[in-house]
Amino acid sequence: MMMFLAGLVGFLLVLTAEARVGNSSELAFCTETEQCLVFDPVCKTPQYEVRHYGSAKWVTTDETHYIMEFASMRAFRRLFKYITGDNVEGKKIEMTAPVLMKMPDDKRFWQAGVYKMGFLLPAEHQQNPPNPTDDSVSIVTLPAMKVYVKTYGGWMTSYSDKSNANSLSSALDLVGAKYKKDFHYAAGYNSPMTWFKRHNEVWYVVEDEPECSSSSEEDMDMSPFA
User: Fold this and answer.
1) What is the pLDDT at residue 224?
2) Nearest residue to 177 via CA among 148, 218, 157
3) Using one digit for the tens of pLDDT, what is the confidence trace for 73-118?
4) How far is 65 from 204, CA to CA, in rounded Å?
5) Which CATH superfamily includes the segment(s) 2-205?
6) Residue 226 has pLDDT above 70, yes or no
7) Element housing 156 (H / E)
8) Burial class (CB in 10 A: 0-12, 13-18, 19+), 168
9) I need a labelling partner for 43 at 20 to 30 A (CA). Which of 3, 7, 13, 137 fits?
10) What whole-number distance in Å separates Cα of residue 85 and Cα of residue 28?
11) Is 128 exposed, middle or buried (0-12, 13-18, 19+ CB in 10 A)?
């Protein structure tokens, strides 16, 4: 009986982990990869939406630089080497979306900042991903979280990210929302080769309960692709 329960728990854990990495058809804006990080919509206001993400594994690397663009190029190349076979098993791993960058909000423009980039691991590698061969690359489990999200188009740059992060944080401060203020996540869903209809997001991690009082709390359109 105990063996059965242990097996059942293990099976449920697999389902839970894989459930957060779903088919891209579940998200209208995830059009360039077969798998994307999926979420449960919580509420939506004219200024932002709130999403719940389950726990998932990412392959990550840190890069210290004064400018986000240079940090992201170096970090991306390092992670791309990992998914194209630079791991202990020599496995090629499919690209997913979004590419996530942890952005330091307390950095002054004359200071170097530590930027952490992550590639979401596909469902089939969520349980036992191959270990990196590069010591600067790590497998990290991001815990379940709720996030405030602002979406914008065009190219993700230091300016566009900062502008949208400031807009989102101002909207959150106006309604007294509690959120982690020392960093935010920049999420990108497109290849550098994509010129039009690009989709980017800014995420702030919710603290306590999300502020939805001014929202319609309506279901968000999850069909391909807003």
Assistant:
1) 30
2) 148
3) 999 999 999 999 999 999 999 999 999 999 998 766 667 789 999 9
4) 22
5) Regulatory factor, effector binding domain (3.20.80.10)
6) no
7) none
8) buried
9) 13
10) 30
11) exposed
Residue 89 near residue 130, CB atoms below 8 Å: yes
208: left (phi over 0), alpha (psi -120 to 50) or beta: left
How does DSSP classify residue 125? G
- Which amino acid makes up residue 176? G
Q: Say if residues 132 and 82 touch (Cβ distance below 8 Å).
A: yes
Looking at per-residue pLDDT, the higher value among 226 and 121 belongs to 121
Q: What is the longest distance spanned by two Cα atoms in the chain? A: 62
Residue 39 clears pLDDT 90, i.e. is over it: yes
Site of tokens 């405030």: 148
- Domain segments of the chain: what residues? 2-205
Rg (CA), the chain: 18
CB-count burial class (<10 Å; 0-12, 13-18, 19+) for 206: buried
